[in-house]
Amino acid sequence: MWPILHTSLLMLVLFEYAFSSTASSSHFSSTCELQGQFHLNGMHKAGDVVLGGLFQIHFFTTFPDLSFTSKPQQLTCNGFDVLGFRQVQTMTFAIDEINRNVNLLPNVTLGYSLFDNCLTLGVGFRAALALLNGQEEQITLNKTCVGSPPIVGIVGDSSSRSSIAISSVLGLYRVPMVSYFATCSCLSDRQKFPSFFRTIPSDAFQVRAMIQILKHFGWTWAGLLISDDDYGLNAARSFQTDLSLSGAGCLAYLEVLPWEKDTTELKRIVDVMKKSTARVVIVFAHENQIINFMEEVVRQNMTGLQWMASEAWTASAVLQTPHLMPYLGGTLGIAIRQGEIPGLKDFLLQTRPDLLHNNSYENSIPPHSVCSENCLPGTRMVRRKGEPECCFDCIPCSEGKIINITNSLECISCPEDFWSSPQRDYCVPKKTEFLSYQEPLGICLTAASLLGTCICAVVLGIFTYHRRTPIVRANNSELSFQLLVSLKLCFLCSLLFIGRPRLWTCQLRHAAFGISFVLCVSCILVKTMVVLAVFKSSKPGGGANLKWFGAMQQRGTVLVLTSIQAAICTAWLVSSSPTPFKNTQYYDDKIVYECVVGSTIGFAVLLGYIGLLALLSFLLAFMGRNLPDNFNEAKLIIFSMLIFCAVWVAFVPVYISSPGKYADAVEVFAILASSFGLLLALFGPKCYIILLRPERNTKKAIMGRGIKS
Length: 709
What we know:
Rossmann fold; about 15% strand; 6-stranded mixed beta sheet; 4 domains
């Protein structure tokens, strides 16, 4: 509908445009004859100035059969269009209102000549020629065959296709044509259409509005249906250009709707739509094309689509039926702004449908229409080769990388001490790994260490209580006490390897380990030397050997041997001290806390010195293995050194090949195993005799003259 003010101004412009040409054509000298008549449906009213009009009163035309032997029959218009007829009535109502207003066109009466275009280009073109030439049998013209047309301008046509064809001809004669419904952007070209005007925005504005709607709802993947004419093709071209420039999304498909009811083609188009993931469909087509198309949509029961309508069918009353509401309910469209015309209010209210208010067809949640779903945080976009930019795959970020926004092209790396969450959307602190007091392995090793310490304390208590018995005195009680104390230190130093490595624990653990074991092995070495010296002193001339193995000499030897190890440890700590280190080489998602030894040479010398003393003890004990005493401690020392050496020989390759906390666990196990081996091998048989076989704890038995086992 047009507001009366717009219509009045439109007619005044047409009147002024043509008045100058009619005033100068007062002398006629010749006539032109019409070669034929078009039979057209129309409404006419005489006036001083006549306005033409082209309106859609019928839906379609029926063409007569062609015999090629006689003059063709006139075509017939069918299918009454209520909306088109209402537009005709509105124009006649506006002209009558202008004529009644003495202030608008004084002393001038407006008339009209309105024709039905039957929604057919041929009929509309015939009607335009009839308005341009008039329908009199003869028209008197001046000698140049130039004259004024019967009308000063034409209101119409309703379609872009007809307006393009008709205004191309009217422009040659500078006859103005003002359309109320032709929106093709191509009609804005003033060189091609110098006398075309319109009271409706072009498709360029419609396209921009639709793109804004797509952006508002986040629809990046939409289908486009167009009519096979200038209106549809120009709209598609404009839509594709603006969509690309705005970056709002992509077209899933572009299909052309046929003018006639082509069932095969319509079925093909519906199949394309059903296979597509686009749930939003934009349609630039005419009402009759939509009617034919919707029949196929209903037949295939294709629901769940969000339709976006151009102005050509947004307000179509024919489509607003209960039959189509399940399919078209909630359609978004670009409609023409309406104004209220006094006197037509009741009529307009009667023709306005109320079906979008039916609760059974209620657009509460907008549909989702994208080629590819948004890439959520934790995933990145990877474009699909050869497909539109709106089509992509969402690939999870690799380990150690995250992204916390949607639709990102790249993932970012986490800081060094952090790792990606399982969802790859944020960084979390890396897990830390070390030999802990809370884990089962650490608990077992701690328990074993404390158990060994307790056993040493118990044995020390037994030996202290029975210190005056022959078996304790015969085996050098002072060195035995020193050996038990050193074994306690060996058991306790293993605790320094458990817990999170710190600078002081890293420095102390190896020093305490090295000194404790040297103290232990030194005691064993001196005990072995004393056993051999005592055996040699029992031979003729061997008494002088004992003076080198008195109590002071024994203590001094142990002190010197231990001091050498202390010096090695001091030099190691001063030159290249062990330090805590966060190792990220073993695992990507973990930080392994460990102590690096600093100087490998220092660590090797420390172990080598312990091994050297153990080897000497073994060799000396092996030399005294056949001593005649009933209780020969040399045999026990041989056995203990075999255990000690076997443990530490196996330790080296296992330690080197064990990562992280397991290297510490291996070293603790080696300390505990060798300590238990020494404790059981050296003190187990003695405790057995002291506690369970006291009859053997006599001087005669020890010297081989008492009870035999």
